[in-house]
Amino acid sequence: MTFYGVSLTSRLMLGTAQYPSPTILRQAIAASGAEVVTVSLRREGAEGAGFRDILVQSGCHILPNTAGCHSVKEAVTTAHMARELFRTNWVKLEVIGHADTLQPDPFALVEAARILCAEGFEVFPYTTEDLIVGEKLVEAGCRVLMPWGAPIGSGQGLRNIDGLRSMRAHFRDLPLVIDAGIGAPSQAALAMELGFDAVLLNTAVAKATDPVAMAGAFGQAVAAGRAAHDAGLMPRRDMASASTPIFGMAELG
Description:
By secondary structure, the protein is α/β, with parallel strands linked by helices. Helix content is 43%, strand content 15%. The chain is built from 10 helices and 10 strands. It has a 5-stranded parallel sheet.
């Protein structure tokens, strides 16, 4: 798996908010096997240099995000501050358009992506499964798309499987990451079975009774789902198909 020329082996990306303690965060990152961690600039500012040191010491690639931004100007400004602080051109671009669902604003998202890509940022846009929005983001310069599975923090899993399957088929050669809404390892495995390149999640691990064990479970689920996809899943059938043929069976009576 490659993002903007950076090759990775783990297909799990982990958020860093809401953990009970810095120690548990550090242990969860290690248990997950993740090689990319996301961080909000606002959270880093609140936690200080100690929090940043934990992320650096993890050895992971840091993906700053513009969480909480509701306008193009706010998102672009936050991205600039994140690049200066973390010294990376990577940015997970979030421009929220709906307060209840935290659904991205597609118009502001595309505009912000166009500005940031032109300024040398390597943008990971948090979007929906809308194919037209995806096309506009690619035209703006994005080389990866991050469609939601469900609203952020909802744990509902993949609410629109048909839409996500269509997106995977449409953007055949583009890295696609399921971002938001994943609440269980089985949901992460399903995303990988559908052919998505990675999964990004936070709440399902951070708020688990045992975040470290849950991080490990998600790491295994993502690996298993990808292995199943690569091995070739059997097609779904409407009728039963006997595994033992009738031909050649002994006739009794």
